[in-house]
Amino acid sequence: MNPATDPKIDLERRTSAMTLSDMEMFIFPELIYSLMLANMMSPILWRWREDPWFKGIQKKSLVARVN
Fold first, then answer.
1. What is the pTM assigned to this prediction?
2. pLDDT tens by residue, 37-46
3. Containing domain of residue 32, as a range?
């Protein structure tokens, strides 16, 4: 069976893309671009948490967090 079409390998690739650590890029080199993008974006994403809206986010209800 072709590894590109094997459902088990495809599932592993997709779950690796979600967890995305540097070790996955050795198994699935095509994920390197996602890893690089995630590393470049992470400082911007962490700055969003400094927004006043996130203050006390753990204490807010599910509806307030979703909206």
1. 0.45
2. 887 888 888 8
3. 7-66
